[in-house]
């Protein structure tokens, strides 16, 4: 029998040491450990902790654990650190796309083919579910993230790359949503192959990244914005230094050193229980500019960091990428203006539009829709690409790729920077 109290204690010790090493690596400018490297390092830490425990037991005149007991303890500690309890089978299923939990026994699963089903309970009680999330919050990301009555909201990245969002006390029962990162290492060619991006648009986007154009990816929740962002980032040459800024680590570009050997991943730090120590997204974007970036990638714009990011795009950091929630490519400009009004600078709308015109080159809009002509299959596809042309009281833009017969983006209007794109291998067609 495994001593679960020992497992819990040792899990905390190993987790604290692992989190400390992550902070040391970041402070020294070292690339973050890959998922597999982190697991190997955790195994070494587990062996170290168990050896210390055995020596301590002998020093106290007690019998240390047997080899079999140590192996069981090591397995239990590793599972507590990197597993997610009864959620693990769902995360191991490649067809699972989203998991919504409204209390421990109300579990709804969405699959890649658009089907939805109710699943077995993932914990014995809501308290056990909250404890599981607290464990994940303690050891996921660069710093521990509280999840309790004083901090009832949580966003984090699971070890497999999935995005978890949880709330408690503002709902009758704890509610959790997990969005799977089914395509971690994804390329534009993959998105062309599955129909998200047309061949001509794929070549266009590849050239736009190579030409260091600033690109904003827009769409609704779960439309595939982050997946497209990863694919565009993987078009960036390996020799460039990338700084990523996120609320919760999700992009994981540092997990593939063969593609991006020089990556620094910034994660927003939340305030502690005394309300101290917060480092906001806007501060991180400003800090990133002092870290010698070739490009700055902001995982998702949701607030006042937009002004800092747009300023960064106009200060020589061309080739930046980001995502934003919007209902259309045209609506992006109003959404940005709304966020800018919330910033400390309190930029008026006309000033924001001038900033947008000087910062953003292209807006790429991704749609998500059930295709009832194909049996209700869920489709994700780019439907529009808008080029920013200037400002005349408002942002001037033209839709260079517009929805075709099936909704997917097809060439619609000439691009003003065509010569630059052609210099990077793009040959226009369809105009």
TrEMBL record:
<dbReference type="Pfam" id="PF00437">
    <property type="entry name" value="T2SSE"/>
</dbReference>
<dbReference type="InterPro" id="IPR027417">
    <property type="entry name" value="P-loop_NTPase"/>
</dbReference>
<comment type="similarity">
    <text>Belongs to the GSP E family.</text>
</comment>
<feature type="domain" description="Bacterial type II secretion system protein E">
    <location>
        <begin position="87"/>
        <end position="362"/>
    </location>
</feature>
<dbReference type="InterPro" id="IPR050921">
    <property type="entry name" value="T4SS_GSP_E_ATPase"/>
</dbReference>
<protein>
    <submittedName>
        <fullName>Pilus assembly protein, ATPase of CpaF family</fullName>
    </submittedName>
</protein>
<dbReference type="GO" id="GO:0016887">
    <property type="term" value="F:ATP hydrolysis activity"/>
</dbReference>
<dbReference type="InterPro" id="IPR001482">
    <property type="entry name" value="T2SS/T4SS_dom"/>
</dbReference>
């Amino acid at each position: 029998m495994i001593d679960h109290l020992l497992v819990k204690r040792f899990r905390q010790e190993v987790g604290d040491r692992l989190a400390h090493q992550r902070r040391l690596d970041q402070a020294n400018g070292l690339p973050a450990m890959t998922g597999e490297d982190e697991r190997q390092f955790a195994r070494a830490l587990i062996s170290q902790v168990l050896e210390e425990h055995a020596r301590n037991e002998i020093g106290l005149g007690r019998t240390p654990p047997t080899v079999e007991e140590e192996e069981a303890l090591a397995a239990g500690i590793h599972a507590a650190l990197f597993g997610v309890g009864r959620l693990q089978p769902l995360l191991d299923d490649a067809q699972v796309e989203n998991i919504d939990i409204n209390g421990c026994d109300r579990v709804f699963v969405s699959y890649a083919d658009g089907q939805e089903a109710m699943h077995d309970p993932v914990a014995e009680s809501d308290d056990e579910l909250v404890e599981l999330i607290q464990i994940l919050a303690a050891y996921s990301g660069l710093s521990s993230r509280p999840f309790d009555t004083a901090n009832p909201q949580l966003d984090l990245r699971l070890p497999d790359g999935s995005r978890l969002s949880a709330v408690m006390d503002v709902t009758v029962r704890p509610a959790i949503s997990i969005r799977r990162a089914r395509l971690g290492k994804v390329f534009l060619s993959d998105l062309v192959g599955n129909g998200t991006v047309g061949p001509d648009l794929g070549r266009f986007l590849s050239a736009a990244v190579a030409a260091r154009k600033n690109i904003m990816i827009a769409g609704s929740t779960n439309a595939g914005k982050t997946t497209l962002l990863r694919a565009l980032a993987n078009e960036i040459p390996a020799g460039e230094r990338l700084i990523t800024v996120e609320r919760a680590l999700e992009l994981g570009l540092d997990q593939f050193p063969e593609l991006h050997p020089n990556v620094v991943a910034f994660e927003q730090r939340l305030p502690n229980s005394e309300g101290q120590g917060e480092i906001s997204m806007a501060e991180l974007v400003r800090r990133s500019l002092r870290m010698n970036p070739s490009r700055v990638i902001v995982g998702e714009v949701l607030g006042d960091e937009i002004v800092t990011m747009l300023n960064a795009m106009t200060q020589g950091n061309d080739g930046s990428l980001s995502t934003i929630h919007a209902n259309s490519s045209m609506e992006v400009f109003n959404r940005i203006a709304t966020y800018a009004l919330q910033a400390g600078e309190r930029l008026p709308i006309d000033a924001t539009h001038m900033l947008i015109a000087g910062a953003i080159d292209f807006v790429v809009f991704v749609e998500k829709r059930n295709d009832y002509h194909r049996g209700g299959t869920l489709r994700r596809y780019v439907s529009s690409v808008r080029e920013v042309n200037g400002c005349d009281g408002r942002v001037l833009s033209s839709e260079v790729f517009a929805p075709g017969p099936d909704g997917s983006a097809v060439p619609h209007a000439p691009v003003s920077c065509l010569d630059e794109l052609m210099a990077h291998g793009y040959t226009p067609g369809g105009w």
